[in-house]
Specification:
Residues 1-29 are annotated as: Disordered. By secondary structure, the chain is mainly alpha-helical. It has helices at 24-35, 45-59, 76-89, 104-121, 127-140, 148-151; strands spanning 71-73, 145-147. Helix 1 crosses helix 2, helix 3 (76-89) crosses helix 5 and helix 4 (104-121) crosses helix 5. The radius of gyration is 15 Å and the shape is globular.
Length: 156
């Protein structure tokens, strides 16, 4: 079962610095991982830096956002397993990309709300939904939490 603390997939070991801090090398590796998400096209360089800051801040249990009852916060291993599965079996779709002519950040926030609502209504075995939610949550919140039923369906 996934644990409480997490960091972004591929971000390596825990930061040695304080909450929200990381070596420049770790920060660049994390940003490169985030840029591989189709939804990252909605972010400029400063917004990408903010997303990385949120992930490092959420990694530290003393600064992490509390997880609501009924939800499970994904740990590194669960996120890595989900992305490994997605890389083998799923491809992104047009709905994962911000459409031209719309406010990118507004689109990303709306996408997060839509995915949150879909996870409340959909079957937990919807892999495409889970992967999209993981990507968007990492970009917008710095952590991933899912209803327990979804976590039990994540391939390990």
């Amino acid at each position: 079962m996934p644990g409480i603390k997490r960091k972004a997939a591929g971000s390596g070991d825990a930061p040695n610095a304080g909450a929200g801090e990381a070596s420049p090398r770790r920060r660049e590796r994390l940003k490169a991982s985030l840029l591989s998400f189709p939804e990252a096209a909605a972010l400029d360089e400063l917004q990408l830096d903010d997303a990385a800051d949120r992930i490092f801040r959420e990694y530290d249990p003393s600064t992490a956002t509390p997880t609501p009852e009924g939800m499970v916060r994904l740990d590194d291993e669960s996120i890595i397993a989900a992305f490994s599965f997605a890389n083998r079996f799923l491809t992104s779709t047009a709905e994962d990309e911000p459409p031209a002519g719309v406010d990118p950040l507004g689109w990303l926030d709306e996408r997060r709300r839509t995915l949150d609502e879909e996870t409340k209504r959909s079957e937990p075995n919807n892999s495409r939904l889970v992967i999209a939610k993981i990507r968007v949550d990492l970009l917008t919140k710095g952590y991933v939490e899912l209803p327990r039923a979804y976590v039990e369906c994540i391939p390990v």
